[in-house]
Amino acid sequence: MNNPMTTRQVALQTPAGLLAFGFGSGLAPKAPGTFGTLAAIPLYLLLTPLNHWLYLAVVVLAFVLGIYLCDKASRDLGVHDHGGIVWDEFVGLWLTLWLVPVTWEWVLAGFVLFRFFDIIKPFPIKWLDQHVGGGFGIMIDDVIAGLYAWLLLMLTMRSI
């Protein structure tokens, strides 16, 4: 696109942008990924009544949808993986919290662990972030961060 839309236009005036920017949470001037992850919590609470497999199916569908949403928003902005694109944080947190008790303590632990892995980017997250393009590239590093956080939560639950 020769004349990219402004961030605000993409985030608030296009359906793909509205979702990719986490209903506007990605417009936070500082730490948009953290604000996007926080914005994912109310939707997570709406998903919790689903049985475990249906919950996981919704997360997988959100991942697939996210590939399109994040790619479209990136193309509209003319910037790959703009910091305000936070749909990947939504999906990463939802994956982190799969099968976790729905209490504020577990949600907080999942939030902290997911943000930790998303920020620190241990192997292969950093490599994927740097070498995989498009919507899939935007989504996959957060999914792996979510898997790392989920594994730690599962190990913690088993040890209690």
Describe what you observe in this structure:
The protein is mainly α. It has eight helices and no strands. The protein has one domain. 72% of the residues lie in helices and 0% in strands. It is globular, with a radius of gyration of 15 Å. The protein starts with 6 loop residues before the first helix and ends with a helix.
Give the tags.
globular, mainly alpha, 160 residues, 8 helices
Classification by helices and strands: mainly alpha
Number of helices: 8
Domains (count): 1
The SSE order reads: HHHHHHHH
Global shape: globular
Uncertain spans: none
The amount of beta strand, in percent, is under 5%
Q: For the report, how would you describe the main beta sheet?
A: none
Catalytic activity: a 1,2-diacyl-sn-glycero-3-phospho-(1'-sn-glycero-3'-phosphate) + H2O = a 1,2-diacyl-sn-glycero-3-phospho-(1'-sn-glycerol) + phosphate
Main location: membrane
Domain YutG/PgpA: 19-155
Pfam families: PgpA
How would you sum up this structure in a few lines?
With 160 residues, this protein is mainly alpha-helical.
Task: Set down the secondary structure blueprint.
Elements: H1 7-13, H2 15-20, H3 32-47, H4 52-77, H5 87-96, H6 104-120, H7 125-131, H8 134-159
Helix pairs in contact: 3-5, 4-5, 4-8, 5-6, 5-8, 6-8, 7-8
